[in-house]
Design brief:
Helices cover 48% and strands 13% of the residues.
Length: 295
């Protein structure tokens, strides 16, 4: 079987299958996006179907090339017609494939918050744009001090995207750390967590402000790689032997559904504290899962 081939050869095969999948589905996606742009309606279900099948074929080549042992808990009761706000820790590009593999067709297609620079990724950038992913600049505090006119633009982008999401059942996905975890970033941030960077609350606060009455719950997802965080190439080469995923469904406090995160300082502090509490629990969970995996 393919998964027993030498690692580098396996990586080349997996990368080729991934590229072929992209090249097959993106032209079809562009055609439907063009029709949707012109006709304005009637193509949301078709776009969801295309995205689900694209992910399903990614899962097929992963199954063909990977020797990963999956330890997943928390999939019970998920609804493919539900509305979810999804958050997760972020360590590797492999995280996206992990999430899509376990959640495809269990919940609606996930719309990720992406860095604006990713729109220039060949083929994929246009595909993400066609699927309605919000592209955010995520300027630093230092940059915003020098360019105050840019303040609030990411919030406006998020608001417009969430308004589009209101038409069909949707999952809004956000990696709250805003970037992948590395030891260097962890030290630079002086993060209070052992395995996480500091969470950024603004994106999900705005998503709740725009769509809060539609979300059934918050899906809080924790991803752990017991044998070490993989590079994307390492993932393609089949070096991810074990993945642990824990999913918890959390009822969103009613008072957080329609607050003014930008204008109400008291609300902002309370919301940030709620997110930090979730992150503290996630960090403790990761410590426990890693300890159990080593036993």
């Amino acid at each position: 079987m393919l998964k027993y081939l030498p690692e580098r050869l396996l990586g080349v095969i997996a990368l080729t299958l991934l590229a072929l999948n992209v090249l097959f589905w993106t032209p079809i996606l562009f055609v439907f996006s063009f029709l949707k742009l012109i006709l304005r309606r009637g193509f949301d279900d078709a776009m969801q179907w295309l995205a689900a099948n694209w992910i399903a074929w990614n899962s097929r080549w992963m199954k063909l090339t990977q020797k990963t042992t999956w330890d997943v808990q928390g999939l019970e009761g998920l609804d493919p017609q539900g509305w979810y706000l999804v958050i997760s820790n972020h360590q590797s590009w492999a995280d996206i494939f992990v999430l899509q593999n376990i959640l495809n067709r269990r919940i609606p297609f996930m719309k990720f918050f992406l860095k604006h620079e990713l729109i220039w990724v060949p083929f994929m950038g246009l595909a993400w744009w066609a699927l309605g992913f919000p592209f955010l600049h995520r300027h630093s505090a230092e940059y915003l001090k020098k360019h105050p006119e840019q303040r609030g633009k990411d919030f406006e982008t998020t608001r417009k995207a969430c308004e589009q999401f209101s038409r069909v059942p949707t999952c809004v996905m956000n990696f709250l750390e805003g970037t992948r975890f590395t030891k260097e970033k962890h030290l630079a941030q002086h993060s209070p967590y052992r395995h996480l960077l500091k969470p950024k609350a603004g994106g999900i606060a705005l998503a709740l402000s725009a769509l809060g009455d539609k979300f059934d719950s918050l899906l809080n997802i924790t991803i752990v790689y017991p044998d070490g965080i993989p590079t994307f190439w390492g993932f393609l080469c089949g070096r991810v032997k074990r993945v642990i995923v824990r999913i918890s469904s959390i009822k969103i406090p009613q008072h957080f559904l329609r607050g003014d995160y930008e204008g109400d300082r008291e609300f902002q502090i309370a919301f940030q504290q709620w997110v930090q509490d979730l992150w503290q629990e996630k960090d403790e969970q990761m410590i426990q899962l890693l300890r159990e995996a080593e036993a």
